[in-house]
Write a structure and sequence with these properties.
Elements (H helix, E strand, L loop, with lengths): L4 E2 L2 H8 L6 E5 L6 E5 L12 E6 L2 E5 L4 E5 L7 H27 L1
Length: 107
Amino acid sequence: MKKFIEISEEALARLESGETIEGSMKKNPKSSKITFTAWNRKAPKHRRKDELIHQLESGWVKESAEKYKLFISVYKKLGLARIMNIIDREAKEAKVALFDKELIECV
């Protein structure tokens, strides 16, 4: 039994040059033709690393291309009142760090 596979010119050229091709083969139920679709693999886009603006006591403030990021990690066992105070203190310190960064950039 012979089956014919429909393949694109680009995929055929890559096969003839000795490269391997990743893709998928599907059978069309109406025409009973088998078609091969090569996957177009692209390298992931590289993004710049987040820049550390300030290291906090229990976290950090970083700057990405689009956002400022604030991370705080506090143990639950400290109790709600202490946790709230720590979050407020860290947020104020982060605000001061961002303000200082902006002042340095303006000068």
